[in-house]
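Z., the sequence and structure:
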Amino acid sequence: MYFSFTMVGIAAVGLLIGIAVGCVGIGGVLLVPILTLALGIDVKHAIAAALLSYLPSGFVAVTLYARRGSVPWREARLLCLAALPAAYLGARAASLAPAGLLEALIGLLLLGGGLYALRGAGRVAAAQRSLATPLLLGLGAGTGFISALTGAGGAFVLLPILLLLDVPVLSAIGLGQAIAIPIAGLASLANVASGLVDPILAGVLAAALMTGIAIGTPIAHALPQPRLRRLLGGIVIASGVAMLARVAARLL
C-alpha cells in the first residue's frame, strides 16, 4: 500500500512514460528505475507492477498503431509466439535474482539503449522488408527473456535491433508494442505465483500508461523521429547512470 501523494507521483510518472512510449516506442524501460530511485519502491515489486501494467497499455498501443498501418502482422505473430515461453522463464529468473543484480542489469540496459538512441537519431530507415522466420523467432525469444527479467518493456530490447535491420521506424515501434503483450502476460503469471504483484500499483500505472500512449501515438506519426529519439536517449542515459551509481553506493 502507498500513500496518496505517492500514488499521484506514480500516476504522473506513468503518464509521462506512456507519452514517450506512444511517441518513440522506448520509454517503459524508465518506469522501473523511476519507481525505485524516485519513489522508493522495491525493485522486484516495481518490475512485477510494471510488467502487469504493460498488458492493457500494450493492447491500446497496438490498436492505435494498427489503425495507422504501422504493425506488420506476419512479423508480429512470429515475434510474439517465440516470446511466450521465454518471458515466463525470464520472470522466474527475476524472482530468484538478487535485487542489486537486477538494478545493475537495468542500468546497463539503459546506458546501451540511450547511447544507441543518440547515435541512431539521424538514421533513415529503408522501405518495409520481410525478415526471415528463424531471425524473428530468435529475436522474439531473446526479447521475451530479457524484458521479463528486467521489467524493461519489449520495445526497448527489440527496437534498436529492428532499426539496425533497416525496419522502418514506425513499423519497428509497432512491433515493439505488439511483443510487449505476451511478455507482460506470461511474466505476470509467474510474478503472481511468486507473490510479487501489487494490484493497486499495477492498476494506477496501467491507467496512466494507457492515457499517455493515447496522447503520444499521434505525435509519433506527425513529428520527426530524430528529435524525439535524441531527447529520449539523453533521459535514458541519465537514468542508467543514476541506477548504476545507486548500485555502486551499496557496494562501497
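The chain has a mean pLDDT of 84. The CA atoms of residues 73 and 161 lie 18 Å apart.

Let me know what you think.
H.
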